Every structure is written in C-alpha cells, then in structure tokens.
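1st attempt posting a full record on here, be nice pls
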Amino acid sequence: MTAAPLASAVSTSPPARWGRRFWWIFGAVLVAYSAQRAGLDLGRLFNTRGFSQFSDFFEAMFRPDLSWDFVKLAIGEAGVTLGFAILGTALSVLIGIFGGVLLTERVWLNVAGTSGASHWVWRTLRGLFAIPRAMHEVVFGLVLVNILGLDPLVAVLAIGIPFGAVTAKVFAELLDEVPPDAEQTLRAAGAGRFSALMFGAIPHAMSDILSYGFYRFECAIRSAAVLGLVGAGGLGFQLALSFQTLRYNEMWTLLWALIILSGIADRWSSLVRRRRNAASVEMHASLSTSAPAKDPVLRTSAVLFLLAIPVAWWRLDVSAASLWSGRARRLSTELWRDAFPPALGDDGWRGLLGDTVDTLALAVLSMVLAWSIASVVAFIASRIENPWGSPANIVRSMVGTFTRLVLLIARAVPPPVWAFLMVFILKPGLWPGVVALAIYNLGVLGRLQAEVVENLDDRPGRALRASGASAFGVANFATLPAVSGRFTALGLYRWEVAIRETVTLSVVGAAGLGRTIRDQAVRFDYDGILASIVALVLITLFVDAISSSIRRTIR
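the predicted structure (as tokens):
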C-alpha cells in the first residue's frame, strides 16, 4: 500500500525541484532586468530640493483642517465614496453569483471530465470573463465617462464590472470545492444542471461567498477613492483639488476620513471572515457534509449591507435609465466607430512594446519591495491571543497595534497620492511609481500575511519548543515552512493586481501604459486607447498564466 505513493513521490520530486529552480532563476532575471530598465544609478535617484515639501505633508498629518465647514464637506464626500463602494460591491456580487454559476466546471464538464462541446463553451466563457478582469477600474471609468458623462452610475459600473469578473472566478472556484452529494441527489431526482447547482451547491458555499463579498467591499472603498481622483467625485475628487493647491491640512482631513472609513470596513470584513472560518472549522471537526449553521454575525452583516443598497442608491441619485438613453446609445456607437480597429501611435510597435515592458518592470519592482518588507512586518502586525499575559506581551501588542495602523494608512491612501509625494523626492522615471505602488501594496500584503500568521497552527512550534529547540529552530523548521507557500501565493496574486494598478499612476506621468492611455485620452485618440488597453489585457493575462504556473509548482 505504501510502495506506490513512495515511488510516485520519488519520481515526481526531481521535476518539482527543477520546476522551482527554473522559476527562481526566471524571477531573478526578471527582477534584474526590471531594475536595469528603471535605472540603477541610485546616486542620481533622489531630488533633495523636494524634501521640504515631503516633510511638510507629513507634518500636516497631526494638524488637519478641523474647521466645521471642511469637516462637514469631508463627511459628505465620505458618504459619496461609501455609496459608490456599496453599490459597486452589490453589482460585483450579483455578477459574481451568476458568472460563478456559468464558469464552474461542474456545470459544463461531465463526471468523467472528458472534453467536448461543453468543454469549449466553458473555456470560451472563462476567456470572456478574463477580459474585464484584466482591466482596472480607472480604464472603465475613462471609457464610461465618454458615454454617460459625469453620472454617478459611471463609478458604480467602473467598480462593479471588473470586480464582478474577479468575483465570478472566485465564486466558481468556491462552487467547484463544494461536495457534490446534494447536487447529485437533485440531479437523480430529475433536476437540471443549473437548478441542481443553485439549490444543491450554492447554499453550501454561501458563507464563503458572503465572506469574499465583504472583502470586495473593503477593496471597493479604495477603488472608489481612486476613481474620485480622476473625476468621479467623493473623497478622491476633493483630495485632487486640495493637492493641486498644496493644502496639506485639508488633504489630511480627507485622508483621515478615508482611513477611518477603510479601517471600519477592514475590521468588519475581518470579523466576517473570522466567523466564517470558525464555522468552517467547526463543520469539518464534526465531519458533517451539511450546509454550515447560520452565524448571527454573518446574517446581520448581510442584512445591514442589503439595507444599505437602496439608501446608497437614493443618496447618490443613481438612475439606470441613463444606460439606455438615446444619448448613451449614440455616444457608445460613435466611440466604438472611432476606436475600432485599434491603431498604433507614431512610435508603432516599438513604442507600444516599450510601454508594456515599463508597465511590467514597474509592477515587478514594486511587488518585490512590498513582498520582502511585508513578509517581515506580518509577524509584527499579527495579533496575539493573550496580550495582557505578561509585560513582554503588552509591549508586543502595542508594537503590533502601531504597525497595523501604519499598514492601514499605507493601503488607505490611494496610490496616486503616494506617487505625488514620491515625485517630490525622486527624479522622474519609473522609481516614483515603483515606490508609490510598493507602499500601497505593503499595506495590503502586510495585512493579508498577518492574517496568515494569526491563523497558523502553532502545535508543531510548541512541540519543538517542548523538545528544547531554540527560537531560531522553531522559526526555521516550523513557522517559515508553514507560511512560505501562502506568502508566495499572496505575493503572486498581488503581482497580477499590480499590473492593473499601474494605470492609476498615470496622473503623475509614471512611465508605462497608464501614462500612454492618459495622453491618448487627452487627444481623444480612441483607436490608440483601444490598442493600449489590448496590450494591458494581454500582459495581465500573461502574468496571470505565469502566476498560476508558479503556484502549481510550489504546492
């Protein structure tokens, strides 16, 4: 019984090791080339004359504009940002549920998993959903504003459509993991494929769907702020106005409002995920295959979010009728006629390829910086179970709380704001965008990796300590092996996202496809914009394929 698995392990281990070595070499070469592309002369990187503006900005953190008129403005704009996030998340979850049903393998592939017409339908649908998933919300916003004008529906659709494509992929994977017993029972009773999936699989995955939906809500707040920076309204729009006149006190009033909003969403989302995980662990411990019990926190959270949808719709005065108005139909037809077929700019393929490579280099360098720092910071930011157990625990808890606040600020402040600051102290080129995106992703990755550390099974570590192992031995043989795979997977996931996020740095002229799209939008060069968007989609899908291959290798 044991010979076959042993032989299999022996036969498959060398290829797995060679696969990992290949990706290590590939990664090292990619990072080295990206650094060379950005410029390696660090002595000429900094702009010392801008340090005074940089320090003035952070000094204003402790003295924001607290005049009642401006605080009232900040509260109102925070409501607008929150409304965009709520409606955008609701749309993304709606798309995600229906898209998840369409994309799940169990609907299109038979039990034996053989290929056929249904297999190619499934592949085609997944390819279609990959296109909006590869485009950033800002790109959707730029397109939609040319059709709908300055309509609040622009921000809702710009968040909901790409988020919906991502959510559909995640929901499909969640449904594929559900045990097939209930679905097979319904199929045996005569139910169709979709009916059996709706009533046999979705109830089992509902807590996971709810948990991920709240994570999307947390991300939507940040996206709503970024869309505001490009004219959609809300806190981001006011931030852009205050930054144009260098009114740092006003900026920090708006940023603290955004940080508080993000912090509340962050804690709410974390609470929902922890309760869902606890329910899942309890279900697995009881060896039950039934749907998990309904948690009151999950149910209350879902009800509150559902009630917030009509309130946000009324508060923002959203009207779906503008989608099928005569003006929207006419402008969309004209836009498509002007954009198709896509056309290269004056620099031809060379220019488009150069922008694409700059985008890739920007994302690679920013993620290497963010992941390297976050992998260390995560252990500091993770919460401990009994912070009052000893003086050392009290100090550890205080340091962790401060670190989590820093990470919250890093991810709550939109990347374009960090980029504006980096322009003060770094010379023009790729590096201001690299550092800005690294700071933002450090906040995101630090938080996600801290959750990995918090959820770590500490029994192996306790066993090693009981046998007399040192702290270094416990970390080397228990902690690091347990978190390394998950840390790497999170870094690869954020690398995929970072490709799209490079578009947001176009407001400060960071090199890459984002800057090109911005310049083309100013010239109303719609066929050029379409060519740049196609290049952005292709490079995102390329990175997605590499990431998937690496994740399969390190499993």
